[in-house]
Amino acid sequence: WALNLFENDISADRVVERAEAETCVAFNLEQIRLHGGATLIAESDARVVGCLSLAFAEGHVFVRRDRRRHGYIQDIVVAEGWRGQNIAQALMAEAESLTRAEGLRSLTLSVLAGNDRAERAYRRFGFAPHAVEMIKALD
Fold first, then answer.
1. DSSP state letter for 114
2. How many helices (H) and strands (E) does the chain have?
3. How much of the chain is helix, strand and coil, in % rounded to 5?
4. What is the structure's pLDDT at 5?
5. HSE-CB for 32 with a 13 A CA cutoff
6. How far apart, in Å, are the Cα atoms of 52 and each of 27, 80, 122, 137?
7. CA-based torsion, 41, 85, 16, 128: positive or negative
8. What count of other Cβ atoms lies within 10 Å of the Cβ of residue 65?
9. Which residues, in sequence order, are bridge partners of residue 78?
10. Phi and psi of 105, rounded to 5°?
11. Taking the model in full, what pTM does it have?
């Protein structure tokens, strides 16, 4: 829910009701159940301060077969008061470790255009642009 609220300030297209946001979590959990992966939780004093959803995904058929299966960070969020304390980096390091342990050769994620802070953090962690997804509003 926190991620949807944060991203909605950037894109104005996210569901912002808690119940609808819970549907996003259920979708992520279903992808993990179907394809493998993990939900990673960062805690402090028994309180959740960060969460990452990692699924092992199958890429497009135009990608070489040996590169098709990969780790995909579906969502990552750190509680507002905890940002800037390397929690996201710790979660991503564990996601990378799990992806490597699965024998996969790449870890992917998407970042919302305009979420410059996240993009900078992902670049520092070693991610680089690979493809650009574009949208045209048909209002």
1. T
2. 5, 4
3. 40, 25, 35
4. 72
5. 19
6. 14, 15, 13, 30
7. negative
8. 8
9. 50
10. -105, 0
11. 0.85
Contact in structure between 107 and 99 (CB atoms under 8 Å): yes
Is the C-alpha dihedral spanning 76, 81, 82, 85 positive or negative? positive
- Tell me the C-alpha distance between 2 and 137, whole Å: 25
* The pair of three-digit structure tokens given for residue 49, joined into one six-digit string: 């301060």
Per-residue pLDDT of the chain (139 residues; tens, 9 = 90+): 777 777 766 776 777 787 888 888 899 999 999 999 999 999 999 999 999 999 999 888 888 888 889 999 999 999 989 988 999 999 999 999 999 999 999 999 999 888 898 899 999 999 999 988 888 889 8
CA distances from 112 to 11, 32, 42, 65, 132 (A): 8, 22, 23, 28, 11
Give the length of the chain: 139
Q: Which DSSP helix (H) or strand (E) runs through 37?
A: strand 37-44
Kindly state the tokens that stand for 103: 């024998």
Contact present, 39 and 72 (Cβ < 8 Å): no
- Residue 19: predicted pLDDT: 84
Say if CB 49 and CB 43 are below 8 A apart.
yes
